[in-house]
């Protein structure tokens, strides 16, 4: 059965919030926008039943995010959520200057961010997850391509009946690994994986030096 995802918070990735939903692009107190994470916990292929996104949300558990890097102070990405914003997303009716919906909501990553809004009756959005010093990999994928000299691996879930239409992308980033998940079943903002590719381009253009 189709997993209706969206339990909102942003991370993630973000993406990652305890106010009532009032303005698109602002924080909401709804279920989290997420899907079963296809990411491998340690950057290597593992049992697909392992889902890091099943860990408790630190915003509700009271526990701070647990860094996965050996030396958190050595994390070159100081503010992942500040490297992109609503202005980089195609959603209409959002405040382009608003903060992400959530930050650091996934304790299994060093940083995570989330941007979530409405498209009609559907929740749509983006999550980012970043791990310092370690890659982020996919347990399965649809293919890969070169983006400005960087390999991007992606998983197209637009026709997967088990999850909301989405696209997942992973790439090496600032000496670590970055995962991007775009969730959009509205068919209003273009191909989902193209949306993800655009975000990868935006983030690579602002990649901190590792």
Automatic annotation (TrEMBL):
- List, as start-end ranges, the regions of compositional bias called Low complexity: 58-71
Instruction: Show the InterPro entries listed in the entry.
Output: DUF3558 (IPR024520)
Return the Pfam families for the record.
DUF3558
Region Disordered, annotated ranges: 34-75
Give the signal peptide range: 1-22
Q: Keywords for this entry?
A: Signal
Per the record's keyword annotation, is Signal included, yes or no?
Answer: yes
Q: Does the keyword Signal apply?
A: yes
Q: What protein am I looking at?
A: DUF3558 family protein
Native organism: Umezawaea endophytica
